[in-house]
Design brief:
Strand order of the largest sheet: 1-2-3-4
Strand content: over 45%
Radius of gyration: 14 Å
Order of helices and strands: EEEEEEEEH
Oligomer: single chain
CATH architecture: Beta Barrel
CATH class: Mainly Beta
Number of strands: 8
Largest sheet: 4 strands, antiparallel
Number of helices: 1
Helix content: under 10%
CATH topology: Lipocalin
């Protein structure tokens, strides 16, 4: 998941149970969160939060990426794959942000 405003790439590692980030210039790689035995699969960003799906425990994790803190997790009814956020207030697309 790319945050064009902050110029960072975020991803999850299914095998390691980690959420990582790196600047788009390839510098400043950060292992942001580690959850023992988690099988993270999907990731998305919304405002200051990272949402990541865990297929091992069928959960959605919410992390505060500014404070580097685990906020909460929710159990979902089935194995989660991807996660998407919708906010009708935020109108600009990633293409519009890149062109600025």
């Amino acid at each position: 998941m790319i945050d064009y405003k902050e110029e960072r790439l975020y991803w999850v590692d299914y095998g390691k149970g980690v959420v990582e980030s790196i600047a788009l210039n390839g510098k400043d790689r950060i292992q942001m969160f580690t959850v023992d035995q988690a099988k993270f699969f999907g990731i998305t960003l919304y405002k200051k939060f990272i949402f990541a799906t865990d297929q091992r425990e069928n959960q959605l994790y919410v992390f505060d990426r500014q404070r580097m803190k685990h906020e909460v997790n929710f159990r979902v009814g089935a194995k989660p794959y991807d996660v998407m956020m919708y906010d009708d207030v935020i109108k600009s697309s990633s293409c519009e942000l890149k062109s600025k």
